[in-house]
Amino acid sequence: MEESKRIDEYLSDQLSAADQQAFEEELNRDPELRRQVDLQRDMAFLLSHQKDRAALKAQMEQTGADFFAEAPSSRPKARIRWIGWAATAAAAAILLFVLWPVFVQPDLYQQYAEFPPLALSEKGTATTNWAATEQTFNTGDYTEAVEQLEDYLQAFPNDQQARLYLGISRMETGQLTNARLLFAIVATKAPGLSDYAQWYTALSYLKEGDKEAARSVLEQIEAGTTFYGQAQEVLGALE
Known about the structure:
Elements (H helix, E strand, L loop, with lengths): L1 H10 L5 H13 L1 H39 L13 H22 L3 H5 L17 H9 L3 H14 L4 H13 L3 H14 L4 H15 L2 H8 L9 H11 L1
Helix pairs in contact: 1-3, 2-3, 6-7, 7-8, 8-9, 9-10, 10-11
């Protein structure tokens, strides 16, 4: 976890000039550290772009709602016979507004289970199309993604990023214990991805309905790491 936090601080320019120079000198000496930095940078990039797209979508939806909510000044007055209908519609709208959150409000897992798109390295062959594996995950076909990622890891067993996504796919298909085992492997073998492994472990407990176990994992997420803010939000919701 300490290694992951140190990489986070380096990537977000939080190190002092002396510490940054020392870290970069270490990068030049340590190929494994360079690989961890590259992994963590890629994951942060994908996650930030996913958030940007979500914010843009929300903004566009709000803009559309505002547009249709505006009443043109040139609109003629409604006829008397529509008053009864309008009153009924208004009452129905109010009732729907009040009751809608009760029926459709997502649980905590659904609110926070957002995943950066899968982007496998260019390792395809004439007989294997890993782009299809990416597509199964990115389109939410997690059952098929499990099978294809297992095949991928047979060919590339040291790809911990792919193992992380296999864990996510197993979590999404309800194989929660197996998912947590995969996350534990990733956290051990790829310190640069340990933040992600820890966060998704907490999500797996939320999906299972084990709030105490989720809280225990969330409380271990350190300040300044990738998911600290979200972890605090969930902890607040669990109070």
